[in-house]
C-alpha cells in the first residue's frame, strides 16, 4: 500500500511529545527552535475559569501587583470574594436590626448575590432580590487589621421599574472622576449587550446575567473630561441607550414614566421617556 500520502507519525503523538521531537531535530541540524510569542491585549491577561457551567473572569495585570475578579452569582466566588460577601451580609443584618419598627427591611442571603468584584484587598459586592438591594465596599482583614468599609441597603424606590434600559447602582473609581472603575447595576430585558465607552476610542464590555451587570476596567485611566458613557444594545446590535457614566439619577437629561403615565425618575417634562421593567 502506498503510504506517501499518510500523515506523519507525529500527528498521532501527544502535542508535548511532538514538540520535543521537533526541537531535538532542529538542534541536531543546527537550527534554533522558535519560541512562541505571547500577545497580551490591552496590557492585561484574560483567564476564563469554568465553574458549575458558568465562568468567572480574572484580570492579572502584568506588574503582578493587582489581581481583579468579576463574579456574577454565588457559584463563581473566589474564597476571598466569598469572605467579602459574607461580611457584607453580616453588616446588612446588623443595619436591618437597627431600623425603626415598621420600616421596610431588605432581607438578603448569599443566594441573592448578583455581582462581586475584587481588586487586591478591596472588594465590592451587590445583592439584589425583589424587595431591594444591598451593597458593600470593603477592605479585607489583614495582619492586626479587622475588615472595614461601608455598606448600604435600600428597598427598590420604584419596584421593578428602571430609568430606561439600564440603571447604575454602584460605581467606584480609583481617582476623583476617573482612573480605574468598577460598575454594577440592573438592565431591562431589551439589553443584550452593555459597553463602557471610555471616550478615547477604547471600550470595556460588561458581563450580563439575570438582569444584572458588572464590569471592571484595567489600565483604562478613565477621565471624566473624555465623557465615558454606558452604551446599551439590543439583540440585533442596535444602540438603544447612551448615558454618561458619572451622571447621577437626579441629573438625568430625561424624565421616565410608567405605562400609566406615573413619573418615577427625573423632573416633570413633556418629553419623558418610558420606564422599563426589570426581571431577574
TrEMBL record:
<protein>
    <submittedName>
        <fullName>Uncharacterized protein</fullName>
    </submittedName>
</protein>
Amino acid at each position: 500500500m502506498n503510504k506517501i500520502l499518510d500523515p506523519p507519525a507525529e500527528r498521532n503523538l501527544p502535542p508535548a511529545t511532538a514538540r520535543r521531537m521537533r526541537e531535538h531535530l532542529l538542534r541536531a541540524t543546527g537550527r534554533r527552535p522558535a519560541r512562541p510569542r505571547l500577545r497580551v491585549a490591552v496590557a492585561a491577561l484574560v483567564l476564563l475559569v469554568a465553574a458549575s457551567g458558568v465562568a468567572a473572569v480574572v484580570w492579572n495585570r502584568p506588574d503582578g501587583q493587582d489581581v481583579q475578579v468579576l463574579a456574577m452569582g454565588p457559584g463563581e466566588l473566589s474564597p476571598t470574594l466569598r469572605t467579602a460577601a459574607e461580611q457584607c451580609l453580616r453588616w446588612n443584618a446588623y443595619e436591618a436590626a437597627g431600623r425603626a419598627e415598621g420600616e421596610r427591611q431588605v432581607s438578603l442571603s448569599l443566594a441573592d448575590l448578583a455581582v462581586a468584584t475584587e481588586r487586591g484587598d478591596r472588594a465590592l459586592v451587590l445583592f439584589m432580590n425583589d424587595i431591594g438591594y444591598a451593597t458593600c465596599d470593603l477592605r479585607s482583614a489583614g495582619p492586626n487589621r479587622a475588615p472595614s468599609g461601608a455598606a448600604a441597603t435600600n428597598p427598590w424606590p420604584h419596584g421593578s421599574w428602571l430609568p430606561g434600559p439600564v440603571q447604575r447602582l454602584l460605581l467606584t473609581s480609583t481617582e476623583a472622576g476617573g482612573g480605574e472603575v468598577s460598575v454594577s447595576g440592573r438592565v431591562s430585558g431589551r439589553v443584550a449587550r452593555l459597553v463602557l465607552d471610555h471616550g478615547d476610542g477604547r471600550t470595556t464590555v460588561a458581563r450580563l446575567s439575570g438582569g444584572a451587570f458588572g464590569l471592571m476596567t484595567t489600565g483604562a485611566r478613565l477621565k471624566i473630561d473624555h465623557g465615558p458613557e454606558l452604551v446599551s444594545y439590543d439583540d440585533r446590535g442596535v444602540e438603544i441607550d447612551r448615558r454618561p457614566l458619572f451622571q447621577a439619577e437626579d441629573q438625568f437629561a430625561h424624565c421616565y414614566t410608567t405605562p400609566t403615565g406615573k413619573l418615577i425618575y427625573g423632573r416633570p417634562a413633556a418629553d419623558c421617556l418610558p420606564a422599563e421593567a426589570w426581571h431577574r
